């Protein structure tokens, strides 16, 4: 049984018109596996992530964690069984309480893990695991840089001892020099704990460093999925090929690939993906 199974998922938003953000997506994640979900902004990656953790209700399809449907997050506290699903958001300012010391916030994750029978730990230990000083536990979030706050958010999520960690663009707000380091840190910490990691990004260059499998999303649909090196070296879908081609390559001339035309992008929707590698 897969740790996470998503089957034919549809997520829609209703306003002046209906927007289908996720259009029939299926994917699996095994324990100890890092799966990257890549695609441009607006393709539905975040909507899929929010549905996986119960923050969005599917219009159709199912999301199952260890074979059980993931319940919607509401005003009531989530049962302890599902606190082993944790999410790291793109903006740590939206997930850290500015009025509570960071040590106390990490303690919330520790308490959730303890209720499921995990061994005791301390906030200072988790700060050190994400490369910060244990002395920072008594400080408030506004005394940290953006990159440090993101590390604190990761520490809090990991302190809950998750079996499944969903990271939605967790490095996009970081400076370029630390993005790869933080991504690699998340991989190591997740693998060491045996957790599955769904790492969402638009950056294929970073994804190549950390992901076992890569899933490519375009306009709400999965158009390619497979072992990361295979997707990188031999992409089968024209959209994936455009993503790989758009990664700057040092040629000494400053050349950039030509952007695809609108007509080309429309034709991509008609390309039938090869058999998708779900596990």
Automatic annotation (TrEMBL):
<dbReference type="InterPro" id="IPR027417">
    <property type="entry name" value="P-loop_NTPase"/>
</dbReference>
<keyword id="KW-0067">ATP-binding</keyword>
<keyword id="KW-0813">Transport</keyword>
<keyword id="KW-0547">Nucleotide-binding</keyword>
<comment type="similarity">
    <text>Belongs to the ABC transporter superfamily.</text>
</comment>
<dbReference type="InterPro" id="IPR003593">
    <property type="entry name" value="AAA+_ATPase"/>
</dbReference>
<dbReference type="InterPro" id="IPR013563">
    <property type="entry name" value="Oligopep_ABC_C"/>
</dbReference>
<dbReference type="InterPro" id="IPR050319">
    <property type="entry name" value="ABC_transp_ATP-bind"/>
</dbReference>
<protein>
    <submittedName>
        <fullName>Oligopeptide transport system ATP-binding protein</fullName>
    </submittedName>
</protein>
<dbReference type="Pfam" id="PF00005">
    <property type="entry name" value="ABC_tran"/>
</dbReference>
<dbReference type="GO" id="GO:0005524">
    <property type="term" value="F:ATP binding"/>
</dbReference>
<dbReference type="InterPro" id="IPR017871">
    <property type="entry name" value="ABC_transporter-like_CS"/>
</dbReference>
<dbReference type="Pfam" id="PF08352">
    <property type="entry name" value="oligo_HPY"/>
</dbReference>
<dbReference type="InterPro" id="IPR003439">
    <property type="entry name" value="ABC_transporter-like_ATP-bd"/>
</dbReference>
<feature type="domain" description="ABC transporter">
    <location>
        <begin position="4"/>
        <end position="244"/>
    </location>
</feature>
């Amino acid at each position: 049984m897969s740790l996470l199974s998503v089957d034919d998922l549809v997520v829609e938003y209703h306003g002046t018109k209906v927007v289908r953000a996720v259009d029939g997506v299926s994917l699996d994640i095994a324990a100890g596996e890092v799966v990257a979900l890549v695609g441009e902004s607006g393709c539905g990656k975040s909507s899929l992530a929010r549905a996986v953790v119960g923050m969005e209700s599917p219009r159709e399809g199912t999301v199952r964690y260890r074979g059980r449907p993931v319940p919607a997050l509401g005003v009531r506290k989530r049962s302890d069984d599902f606190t082993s699903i944790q999410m790291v958001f793109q903006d740590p300012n939206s997930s850290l309480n500015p009025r509570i010391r960071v040590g106390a916030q990490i303690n919330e994750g520790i308490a959730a893990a303890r209720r499921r029978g995990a061994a005791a730990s301390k906030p200072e230990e988790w700060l050190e695991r994400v490369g910060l000083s244990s002395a920072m536990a008594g400080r408030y979030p506004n005394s940290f840089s953006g990159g440090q706050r993101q590390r604190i958010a990761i520490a809090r999520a990991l302190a809950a001892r998750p079996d499944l960690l969903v990271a939605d663009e967790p490095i996009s707000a970081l400076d370029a020099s630390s993005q790869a380091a933080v991504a690699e840190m998340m991989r190591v910490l997740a693998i060491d704990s045996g957790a599955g990691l769904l790492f969402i990004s638009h950056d294929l260059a970073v994804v190549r460093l950390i992901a076992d499998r890569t899933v490519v999303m375009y306009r709400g649909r999965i158009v390619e999925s497979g072992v990361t090196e295979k997707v990188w070296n031999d992409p089968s879908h024209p959209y994936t090929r455009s993503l790989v081609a758009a990664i700057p390559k040092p040629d000494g001339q400053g050349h950039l690939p030509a952007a695809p035309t609108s007509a080309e992008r429309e034709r991509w929707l008609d390309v039938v993906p090869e058999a998708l590698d779900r596990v």
